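In response to the reviewer comment on reproducibility (Comment 2.3), we provide here a single inverse folding case reported in full, input and output, so that an independent group could reproduce the run without further information from us. The structure tokens appear first.
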């Protein structure tokens, strides 16, 4: 190997096995596997079957950011296991390398089918759920909006009074109070 500084080209190159392995060009860009880096750090391979990765390792395990072989994806690895992937169409998979939705979160493959009309978020496990955490005096909401109204429909839980309400057309239409009474079109039972 050798270390070379080319005054005419104004670059520095490191050679290994009589081939250039790394270059720092006149603008400070570093190329590994390329002699003309376009970015501050560019890692390039000459084969799609090679997975370029930026790795971090301690004595216990490693983490990497890289491009899996034969894909146009970006993967994130911790403890030597892939945890998240962004595929070539921009879909994100967490816990899976197959992104079946825009965001696909998988703990276990449940075999569940994905509805093509609801494929923005897919949470998959044998038993699954979503937790909306609020303080004991706060509120938790799921809201539906359109181009005319940010609050056209909502489901909300109000912790201070322990009731759930359903809003339709930006107004409360139903409430389940802390005693379990279902109130339609009113906010108190009046009993």
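Designed residues, in position order:
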């Amino acid at each position: 190997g050798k270390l070379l500084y080319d005054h005419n080209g104004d670059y520095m190159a490191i050679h290994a096995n009589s081939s250039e392995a790394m270059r720092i060009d006149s603008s400070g860009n570093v190329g590994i596997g390329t002699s003309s880096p376009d970015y501050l750090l560019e890692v390039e391979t000459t084969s799609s079957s090679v997975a370029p990765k930026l790795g971090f390792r301690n004595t216990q395990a490693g983490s990497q950011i890289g491009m899996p072989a034969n894909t146009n994806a970006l993967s994130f690895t911790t403890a030597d296991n892939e945890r998240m992937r962004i595929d070539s169409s921009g879909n994100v998979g967490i816990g899976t390398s197959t992104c079946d939705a825009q965001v696909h979160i998988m703990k276990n493959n449940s075999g569940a089918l994905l509805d093509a009309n609801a494929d923005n978020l897919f949470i998959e496990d044998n038993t699954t759920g979503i937790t909306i955490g609020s303080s004991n005096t706060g509120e938790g909401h799921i809201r539906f909006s359109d181009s005319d109204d940010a609050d056209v429909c909502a489901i909300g839980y109000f912790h201070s009074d322990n009731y759930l309400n359903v809003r339709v057309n930006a107004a409360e239409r139903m409430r389940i109070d802390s005693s379990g009474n279902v109130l339609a079109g009113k906010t108190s039972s009046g009993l």
